[in-house]
Write a structure and sequence with these properties.
This protein is an alpha/beta fold. 28% of the residues lie in helices and 22% in strands. The strands form 17 sheets. Strands 4-3-14-13-15-16-17-18-21 form a 9-stranded mixed sheet, with helices on both faces. It is elongated and about 130 Å long.
């Protein structure tokens, strides 16, 4: 060991200097002293003996404080063992050495990972600026639209800065840009660039991947590496322990108790200590016997339930005793055994929410327990209900609590004797065990096993009568119970029980008690040895010479060896003999599996093995001499127990015997193992009745074996070696890793500064069909954000280098927040549960899905397309009907439509003003529901005339000039629109700027005014003042506006003559809107198209002058504008106008208006529907009281340019069903830039149909219909019926050929109301021709179509439409511009967002976009900021599982940051710009590695 130890050892130093140095090391590792202080003190110490150590290279003095793994051969000579340098939970040492870790990290020095960024309010330490990585901006993909600051304005619409792709740079605001279009301020993009650089580095060669037909998209199991090490030894033989000595054993443990209780009543049995280390009570064998009898008598005779005894033999009873009261526990345990009851010891529940408490409740329920025994003091400390009774804990059955202090018990009559029977097969007690998943099971131990275990331990440990044993372990279970409560009785041993609280206060207490009581045996864990090392400084007078046996109960843990070495190192000088240390291995199922015997009991010399980590991960034992870095040093845990047979079997599948150099699960056949999991027959059979077989399939024994859950092998001299536990086993790919080993590696990365030792949990979670490693640690409060991040990245690198496995997620939580196990340590399964539920609340998270997830399906390669000619035959494409459909023919619908006589809308208005002057066309409501303005036909006509006169006289505009109308929603807007038409001007409706948010809304107004080349702005006085205000001047120079006219007080004038367009193709108005991808697009609508649009809507919705319809839409673009301004004038119906901003103050306004005016037809947007569903869902009863009744509604249509949001429309229908809303009334419409109204449900025709498609097929541009509820199914509903005169065809996105029925392609539309083209500054003729005058590449190549830019499919249904034909349904899947091309597949953002929103209840909204091939997910947190980081792992998991995509960046923001337009659509490109320009003020940004 010395050759890799400290160089100081080469020079003999005086013993006291060596000791002082060792103490200094410990102080440093514990954090009791700074590095500087350490070096000062060390230099002083060494200066005393300076002549001795002239030759030591100073650079080595601090660095090489660390031990190397001991060599495999014989134990090293004692005197040269240097003290290991580590601290609290020294547990983790000696196995993966710090120097191995340092060497591994040296390889990675040049890697820079992007640091996650936190909002300043979340930060506790240095400012964020300190973290900015060096900016190495690579030019980003072009078209990053302008930056914007997003804050929530009034009304559901969140403002957006329109950014025209075709806008000159000058009008873009003041963000400086690089050539690539990325804002220079972008700190974010430099981090993303850094992340990209990290990801570009070559990974280890990926494991072989399969990709089966892209429908099935199976994540294939990876193929094993052909070069991996394979076991080469011969098949092992069953190892037989020495026979159990035939002696004068008592017939049962109770017989032994009776014997000692009556013949040696004064002999001490158990001494209990208080937290100061004083002996508070010594229980004698006589007292134990009499008090147990008293309890047994009370339990059997004094507890009744309706005159029936409460308990009968064999009933289970819970024992609830604190760790500080072994005396009462022992009395209760033996009292139950004497009464033939089955004790079930459990932990004292402290709160209603203890870690794992619910599972303990399940155990109590499954054992049928109704009685709990406890002490007076303990009962007083339990949480109480109002009645004073003990509360019922979560998941627990109702319990009766019995206090068993002496005064509550009844003395039995003289002649009463319990039945002390021989040890038989019936259950004696049940020990609880928590599995890897967190479920708690009861392990039943029979009386016979109990006695056999005590006999085997007596023989193996050489216990003799009246010895003294110091017990530091929990006496309720495991070795603490077997040695300290059971075997001690068999041998009349005096047990001195050291409570955990005393160990925490004085870690040396157990050693002092060994001294005081001259104890022959001590029972400890490696943690206790380690703690006492730290505390032994001033103690010179302790002696351990009386010990003949120091049993290390967790000797099977990989870190116990270093504790044993270090302990021996220090205490050998205090009388500790090396052969006294006896590590043992045990498991709840097999009890003690193996224990090292001292030489005087015939034990062979101890051994240790230095094993290759890589070999172990493949389940193979390779003694490793060369590879110093990734090795595990383990010590033997001695020999098999007397009377037991042991073999090693394969972990998975049939229990075949392993080869001699193979790691497997240790199985035991002995009369001293437990018998079953209580009440669980299935898993009992698997574990307690395993039949190991040879390679040939022959059973190795006629008796079944018990699986121990320990992984190990049999070494030389038949010694048992344990290398891990099944519970801590993580199988990643094909390789097995042990959680404890990973913890050890993490702790070797200078942990003391950043995290608490012993407060680290490692577990695996299944994501995408493989285990993924998660490491959670408690962060010290004084560790800075940056330091912790550095530590995390180094831990990742160390684990990657030493274990060759990636860590999927590394999370740091604040100190003392991880769930604790009863006696210190971490409750791992509860931690895992919290991680999966998003309840861990970490303060730092680092996810590495890019490096860990290697089993994604192969990216899709696009297949070369089949040539067009081979596809089309008549009306069939590749064997299917061509997907084309049309609404009713307009020419067949000749009706008595007076308006048809007029080609132009101004003519219609004049005709109506002449024939029905007083017919009301518009009613405008305010938030109170009062009518603020109305317009009859003649009023509207006169108002329009005034506006026309003003435009001609005041603004001196000629026909054809463009006029911007900047009005709030209302009648003035409509009058101004017709005023423009009356004088031949071209109106452009523009949403007014938001007074509270001028900085982001005013540039949009200015941009539309500029791009549309408006010569004049018509508006109200209030808005005119706003445009010229000081606040506005900060954003837009007031002098740059064209003429601004306010129409509030214009004089009453008539126009000499109303302008008549020379032809129907003359431009009527411009319709400007910002698409969801951030493009400002204006389309030209001719007079002919305008009239045709009105006529189609009139026919579809059966609109006549006698009808009333309610409209709650924004009147600025698309179908909303047409319904608000055009349709009433054309059809003569009355429109009740509800401005959406008014819903901010009165959510129920729209529904109230629909009910009040008995509207059969109503239109709204998704944002309005969402406001109603959220704001009124719980108030339907109150609305009914106010008389709101929706039974009048025939059809309620959501105006949208996207895939129908089924979840929202369905929940809306359900919520307002109580108010009479017919089940089938709600439907959606579909329009886009090239044609604002393609589909509209209307009042006649079949109900919309819903189909379910396979989401995976959609990614490959295919439609595969599936059943409702099948995995990966996505519901799609029809977007209303195709309007009269509209023809739709589905075309291939690339070849532009027609597609067949139920095939996914781009929706193309041909109709008289198509827009005639884009209106932009630059004449983008190419784009215009492409979008507005496309032709199919084969088939019908004559028709001119407009491309909608939306993916969808047509499907012929079984329903018939009005003409008696089979109805063709159009399903819209999503916008082509919005789709994300990732891994060769096409994803729709909404699908990923839906998955993410489902991942955690505090995700209010989500939006995704890509940046340089990285998927960025932005989530709005509706919860506490400190819970923000819980979302990072959940978001990453859900996107991996459901979409097979790795998330690159997770951004967590406040509610309301994701910008939404007036139609309720997310503006993902604006969000992207805001993110890249660092304007989102995120709570946290996580960069996944």
């Amino acid at each position: 060991m010395a050759e890799r130890g400290c160089p100081l050892e080469a020079v003999p130093l005086p013993a006291e200097v060596r000791e002082s140095l060792a103490e200094l090391e410990l102080e440093l590792s514990e954090g009791d002293i700074t590095q500087k202080g350490y070096e000062k003190k060390r230099a002083k110490l060494l200066a005393r003996c300076a002549p001795h150590i002239q030759g030591v290279d100073p650079s080595l003095q601090v660095e090489n404080r660390i031990l190397g793994p001991a060599q495999a051969s014989a134990p090293a000579p004692k005197q040269s063992k240097p003290r290991p340098s580590n601290a609290r939970d020294e547990r983790f040492r000696s196995d993966v050495h710090t120097e191995a870790v340092q060497a591994a990290l040296a390889k990675y020095k040049e890697r820079k990972m992007p640091m996650p960024s936190k909002r300043r309010s979340v930060l506790t330490h240095a400012s964020v600026e300190a973290y900015t990585p060096p900016a190495d901006l690579h030019s980003a993909p072009p078209d990053v639209t302008t930056g914007l600051v997003l804050r929530q304005p009034a009304y559901g619409e969140r403002p957006q800065t329109a950014s025209a792709r075709g806008v000159p740079r000058g009008c873009r605001g003041s963000v400086l840009e690089t050539a690539g279009g990325v804002p220079v301020s972008s700190r974010v993009s430099s981090k993303i660039q850094q992340l990209l650089n990290t990801l570009k580095r070559p990974k280890r060669p990926p494991l072989k991947e399969f990709f089966v037909d892209d429908f099935e998209e199976l994540l294939e199991v990876q193929q094993p590496d052909p070069n991996q090490p394979k076991p080469e030894g011969s098949q092992m033989a069953v190892l037989r322990g020495e026979p159990l000595a035939e002696g004068s054993w008592p017939p049962s443990l109770l017989a032994a108790l009776q014997q000692w209780g009556t013949t040696q009543p004064k002999a001490p049995c158990l001494t209990a200590l208080d937290t100061a280390g004083k002996a508070v009570y010594t229980l004698t064998y006589g007292k134990l016997w009499s008090r147990s009898l008293k309890l047994a008598y009370t339990l059997l005779n004094k507890l009744t339930n309706k005159n029936e005894p409460l308990l009968k033999p064999g009933d289970r009873v819970a024992l609830v005793f604190p760790n500080s009261d072994p005396v009462m526990f022992m009395v209760a345990f033996y009292g139950c055994l004497l009464a033939e009851l089955v004790p079930v010891p459990i932990e004292v529940p402290l709160t209603r929410k203890d870690a794992g408490s619910q599972q303990v409740g399940f155990l109590l329920g499954s054992c049928g327990i109704s009685l709990a025994l406890t002490t007076d003091a303990c009962q007083k400390g339990l949480p109480k209900a109002q009645t004073g009774e003990v509360v019922t804990f979560k998941g627990w059955p109702p319990l009766t609590w019995l206090v068993i202090d002496g005064k509550h018990l009844t003395k039995p009559p003289k002649d009463w004797q319990p039945a002390v029977q021989d040890a038989g097969p019936q259950t004696a007690y049940i020990e609880y065990k928590t599995s890897k998943e967190g479920s708690t099971v009861g392990v039943a131990v029979s009386h016979a096993s109990l006695l056999a275990q005590c006999q085997a331990l007596t023989q193996a440990c050489g216990y003799s009568e009246a010895e003294t044993l110091t017990n530091v372990l929990d006496f309720k279970r495991d070795a603490g119970l077997w040695h300290g409560v059971l075997t001690s009785i068999l041998n009349r041993i005096h047990v001195v029980s050291i409570p955990y609280a005393l160990m925490k206060a004085n870690p040396l207490s157990w050693i002092q008690k060994v001294c005081v009581y001259k104890a022959q045996a001590a029972l400890v864990k490696s943690r206790d040895m380690h703690w006492s090392l730290l505390a032994q400084r001033g103690q010179r007078d302790v002696s351990l010479s009386s010990l003949r046996l120091l049993i290390v109960a967790d000797g099977a843990n990989p870190w116990s060896i270093s504790s044993c070495d270090a302990f021996l190192n220090v205490f050998q000088a205090r009388g500790l003999r090396p052969e006294v240390i006896c590590p043992c291995a045990s498991s709840p199922e097999a009890l003690t599996v193996a224990i090292r015997r001292p030489p005087d009991l015939g034990g062979p010399p101890p051994r240790r093995a230095v094993l290759s980590m890589s070999g172990l991960s493949h389940g193979v034992i390779r003694v490793d001499a060369e590879e110093k870095l990734s090795v595990l040093t383990v010590q033997d845990v001695g020999q098999v127990m007397p009377g037991a047979n042991v073999c090693i079997v394969k972990v998975e599948g049939t229990p075949h015997l392993c080869k001699t150099d193979e790691v497997g699960e240790i199985c035991v056949d002995s009369s001293a193992t437990a018998t079953a999991y209580y009440g669980l027959l299935g898993i009992t059979k698997n574990v307690f009745e395993t039949v190991p077989v040879t390679a040939g399939g022959a059973p190795v024994s006629d008796r079944p074996f018990t699986r121990t859950g320990l992984l190990g092998f049999i070494g030389p001299d038949d010694l048992v070696f344990v290398v891990g536990k099944l519970d801590g086993l993580m199988v990643v790919g094909f390789r097995r890793h042990n959680a404890d080993d990973v913890v050890a590696t993490a702790l070797a990365v200078e942990p003391m500064k950043f995290v608490y030792r012993g407060r680290i949990a490692v577990f695996s979670v299944t994501v995408l069909h493989d285990d993924r490693i998660v490491l959670v640690a408690e962060q010290r409060p004084d560790a800075s954000e940056e330091d912790s991040f550095q530590w995390m990245s180094r831990v990742l690198q160390a684990i990657d280098s030493i274990h060759q496995v990636g860590v999927y997620c590394l999370a740091l939580v604040p100190a003392n927040t991880l769930p604790k196990a009863p006696l210190g340590g971490i409750h791992v399964s509860e931690t895992k549960q919290r991680f999966l539920e998003g309840m861990l609340h970490p303060c730092n998270v680092l996810m590495c899905p890019h490096t860990c997830v290697t089993n994604l399906p192969k990216p899709r390669q696009k297949q070369p397309e089949v040539g067009p000619a081979s596809m089309i035959v008549g009306n069939l494409v590749a064997g299917k009907r061509i997907a084309q459909a049309s609404g009713r023919e307009l020419s067949h619908l000749e009706d008595s439509d007076q308006a048809r006589k007029f080609l132009f809308l101004p003519d219609v208005l004049q005709w109506r003003a002449h024939t029905t002057p007083e017919h009301p066309l518009f009613l405008l409501l305010n938030a109170k529901g009062t009518v603020t303005s109305t317009a009859t036909c003649v009023q509207l006509h006169k108002k329009a005339e005034r506006v026309a006169a003003a435009l001609m006289e005041k603004a001196r505009l000629n026909a054809g000039a463009h006029v911007a109308l900047v009005y709030p929603p209302g009648v003035d807007l409509i009058a101004a629109f017709y005023g423009c038409l009356y004088c031949g001007c071209v109106p452009v409706t523009v949403r007014p700027p938001h007074p509270q948010n001028l900085a982001t809304t005013l540039p949009t107004v200015k941009m539309i005014v500029e791009v549309s080349k408006s010569a004049c702005v018509l508006t109200t006085q209030a808005i005119m003042r706003l445009l010229r205000s000081k606040e506005a001047a900060a954003t837009v120079d007031a002098r740059t506006w064209p003429t601004i006219l306010d129409t509030d007080d214009i004089p009453k004038k008539k126009v000499a003559s109303i302008f008549r367009p020379p032809s129907p193709d003359v431009l009527a108005y411009l319709d400007f809107s910002v698409s969801t991808t951030g493009i400002l697009a204006g389309v030209k609508m001719s007079h002919a198209a305008t009239s045709a649009l009105c006529r189609s809507i009139k026919l579809q919705c059966e609109l006549y002058p006698s009808r009333q319809i309610a409209i709650c839409l924004d009147p600025y673009c698309g179908l909303g504008f047409a319904l608000w301004c055009l349709c009433s004038v054309y059809s003569g119906h009355q429109s009740v106008l509800v401005p959406p901003p008014e819903l901010e103050t009165n959510v129920s306004l729209w529904l109230w208006a629909v009910s009040q005016y008995r509207a059969r037809v109503t239109f709204c947007s998704y944002s309005v529907m969402e406001m109603c569903a959220r704001g009124l869902g719980a108030q339907t009863a109150a609305l009914r009281m106010k008389g709101v009744n929706l039974s009048c509604v025939r059809t309620c249509m959501v105006v949208a340019e996207e895939r129908p949001r089924i979840a929202l429309t369905q929940s809306f229908s359900k919520l307002f069903r109580d108010l009479g809303l017919p089940a089938r009334a709600v439907s959606t419409t579909f329009g886009c830039r090239v044609n604002v109204a393609i589909c509209l449900q209307g009042t006649a025709g079949p109900d919309p149909t819903t189909v379910y498609v396979d989401m995976r097929a959609l990614r490959h541009d295919r439609v595969r219909l599936v059943e409702r509820g099948s995995p990966h199914s996505l519901p799609l509903t029809e977007s209303g019926k195709i309007l009269p005169g509209v023809k739709v065809i589905i075309a291939h996105t690339e070849t532009r050929g027609p597609l067949g029925d139920s095939h996914l392609g781009e929706i193309w539309v041909s109709s008289p109301h198509n827009a005639t083209g884009y209106y932009t500054v630059y004449g983008e003729e190419g784009l215009h021709a492409d979008h507005f005058s496309a032709r199919l590449s084969f088939g019908d190549t004559q028709t001119v179509w407009a491309r909608t830019g939306f993916l969808g499919f047509l499907r012929r249904t079984e329903l018939t439409d009005a003409s008696g034909e089979r109805h063709d349904a159009l399903y819209v899947v999503g916008s082509l511009d919005e789709t994300l091309e990732l891994r060769g597949m096409r994803y729709h953002p909404i699908d990923i967002e839906t998955s993410v929103i489902r991942a955690h209840r505090s995700i209010a909204e989500c939006a995704v976009f890509t940046w340089t091939n990285l998927l960025v997910v932005v989530v709005e947190l509706d919860g506490l900021e400190q819970d923000a980081l819980d979302l990072v792992a959940l978001v990453t998991n859900v996107v991996l599982e459901e979409h097979h995509l790795v998330v690159g960046v997770v951004v967590i923001v406040d509610p309301g940051v994701i910008p939404i337009n007036s139609r309720g659509e997310k503006q993902r490109m604006h969000l992207r710009d805001g993110f890249l320009a660092d304007q989102l003020d995120p709570i946290y940004v996580a960069y996944n590695m």
